[in-house]
């Protein structure tokens, strides 16, 4: 995919936005150290008082995924190709909208996990996304019961040392509205990745988070969306801990937002 348009926008925002140029003060606490004083990222997985793996911390992508051979339905393959040909013109990232679930996992901006017994929060620096995973034993609602959520409705449970998260009721696209050209109602909606792979309101996700050691977390994401794909598929990625005491910074997407101006779509 040609990233010319989005890359130019990212450069302009990075140069002009003070919120992206600043950094929070470093505050490293509880980092295991090797004899030479450097962080020991292979140290054992930290655990909460109840013995569960503690996923808390600031994480950044260490190993991404290849989504070039997904099992698309014909209409979804057509839409993905049209989105890719537009160089990410209507990617939610550039439009300051909440991103798709895979986009958040693989973006270079870090994420922060806050783990409590009843809820786990994931705060994404990218577009300031906030995701709530309910750990209180509630059931996943039926598709269509609640209003669609940009980040989906997520419930979690522990299976051994793996956090298993099931999510549904995403705000996705409606295949019936696609007539060979992307309608405006699709702009910024239903982008699984930055290649424009779509998802619909029928999508359900199953994710497995496993903290292998102090410094590494493996994530599996299984996508089941029969309206957009011919079969479920699983993607795997790796996150590494940010061990220098960094925190995510404010990401105020509309501050000095240049993407819409550069693409001729700024409000007048």
CATH class: Mainly Beta
Kindly report how far apart the N and C termini lie: 31 Å
Q: What's the story with the biggest beta sheet?
A: 9 strands, mixed, barrel
- Domain unit count: 1
| Lateral strand order in the biggest sheet | 1-2-3-4-5-6-7-8-9
For CATH, the homologous superfamily is named as Calycin beta-barrel core domain
CATH architecture: Beta Barrel
Instruction: From the 3D structure, determine the CATH topology.
Output: Lipocalin
What would the principal axes of the Cα set say about the shape? globular
Enumerate how many helices there are, as a single number. 5
Word description of this protein:
- The protein is of the alpha+beta class and 268 residues long.
- It has one domain: Calycin beta-barrel core domain (Lipocalin), CATH 2.40.128.
- The chain is built from 5 helices and 9 strands.
- The chain has helices spanning 4-16, 18-21, 74-85, 101-106, 259-262, and strands at residues 57-63, 111-115, 119-124, 129-134, 153-159, 162-168, 204-211, 216-224, 233-241.
- It has a 9-stranded mixed β-barrel.
- A hairpin with a 4-residue loop joins strand 3 (119-124) and strand 4.
- It is globular.
């Amino acid at each position: 995919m040609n990233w010319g348009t989005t890359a130019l926008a990212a450069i302009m925002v990075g140069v002009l936005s003070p919120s992206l140029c600043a950094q929070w003060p470093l505050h490293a606490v509880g980092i295991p150290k090797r004899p030479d004083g450097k962080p020991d990222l292979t140290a054992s997985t930290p655990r909460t008082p109840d013995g569960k793996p503690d996923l808390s911390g600031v994480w950044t992508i260490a190993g991404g995924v290849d989504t070039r051979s997904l099992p698309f339905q014909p209409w979804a393959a057509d839409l993905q190709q049209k989105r890719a040909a537009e160089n990410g013109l209507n990617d939610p990232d550039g439009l300051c909208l909440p991103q798709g679930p895979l986009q958040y996992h693989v973006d270079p901006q870090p994420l922060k996990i806050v783990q409590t017994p009843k809820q786990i929060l994931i705060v994404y620096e990218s577009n300031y996304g906030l995701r709530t995973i309910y750990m209180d034993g509630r059931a996943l609602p039926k598709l269509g019961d609640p209003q669609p959520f940009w980040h989906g409705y997520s419930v979690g449970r522990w299976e051994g040392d793996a956090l298993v998260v099931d999510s549904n009721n995403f705000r996705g696209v409606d295949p019936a509205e696609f007539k060979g050209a992307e309608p405006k109602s699709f702009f910024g909606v239903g982008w699984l990745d930055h290649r424009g792979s779509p998802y619909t309101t029928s999508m359900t996700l199953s994710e497995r988070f496993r903290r292998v050691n102090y410094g590494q977390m493996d994530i599996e994401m299984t996508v089941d969306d029969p309206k957009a794909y011919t079969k479920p598929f699983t993607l795997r990625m790796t996150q590494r801990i940010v061990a220098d005491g960094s925190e995510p910074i404010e990401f105020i997407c509309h501050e000095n937002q240049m993407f819409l101006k550069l693409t001729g779509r700024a409000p007048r």
